[in-house]
Amino acid sequence: MKSIDVVAGIIHYKNRLLCVQRPESKQQYISKKFEFPGGKIEAGESHTEALSRELLEELNLSTVNQSYFLTVVHQYPNLEVTLHAYLCQVDSDALTLHEHISHKWLKAEELGTLDWAEADIPIVEKLMTI
Question: How far apart are CA 86 and CA 51, in angstroms?
Answer without folding.
Answer: 8
